[in-house]
């Protein structure tokens, strides 16, 4: 058991460091309120502290451990609250629940504070799930995010129950189980970010649409949609690997906000999803019609800038990989 815990701790700390670097570099342009961005760093640093504590497998928790549990639960909550709701719309209790919970936890014996901290983290994940449901017409885009939050909430609830059972099981079993589950959580996050590299962009586009005041009051929606479709279907703008929302908006004589809202409301998808759709449809045609072209050249021809992104998008939209798709449509017996 000790070796498994050490492996889980080592993996978690390495993953947390990778995510810290990514959050400071790759995701630095992600639009977040200041408190949510800071919460993301606090969450990851607190998880490193928590896993370092688990590596020792002590006989009992300390208040430092309780604070690390509170810090990564609060960091998780405030980070994703900032993703799912503009800060000016936060309720008063969403601002004050984390510090109030810390005061409560520090006033209780550690044997009670630990399972209570886990219950607090579970409640935060459940509340974030409720916010996804309340996003109205765009909530159908968040099935993946909802399922992840349900999984994290379930993990938190299980560990909270395990923490409450410490008199019968002992703290070392609790620490061991929690260390392994945290490692699984890190593995899930890394897998999601690799499998869906535009996940955060897609989420923020949909949230902005849900809470934004319409920017299309003076726009002929049908004509604008036809213009966007013509850009993709006639001019094949998706072949430009650097195509982004602002560039497409300029071609359509719209602002980026107008273009995003138009695509979300009139075409029932995000810009990134629309771009992937046209690229994959073109790739499917090329795979069938240009059989001598390599899979890599097909992906590059339709606008993807890497093989991994091409494969991930193709699998997402077709449930298979390009080579298998070509084989299935070869016409050979």
Describe this entry's structure for a reader:
The protein is mostly helical and 333 residues long. The chain has 2 domains: 2-206; 216-328, Arc Repressor Mutant, subunit A (Orthogonal Bundle), CATH 1.10.10. The chain has 16 helices and no strands. It has helices at 2-24, 34-56, 63-84, 92-106, 110-133, 143-164, 166-169, 171-195, 199-211, 221-233, 245-251, 256-266, 271-289, 295-301, 307-318, 322-328.
List keywords for this structure.
333 residues; Arc Repressor Mutant, subunit A; 2 domains; 16 helices; 0% strand; globular
Poorly predicted tracts of residues: none
Determine the N-to-C terminus distance.
52 Å
Number of strands: 0
Number of helices: 16
Helix/strand-derived class? mainly alpha
- DSSP helix fraction: over 70%
- Share in β-strands: under 5%
Largest sheet: none
What is the C-alpha radius of gyration, as a whole number of Å? 23 Å
Mean pLDDT equals: 84
- Provide the succession of SSEs: HHHHHHHHHHHHHHHH
The global form is globular
| Tally of separate domains | 2
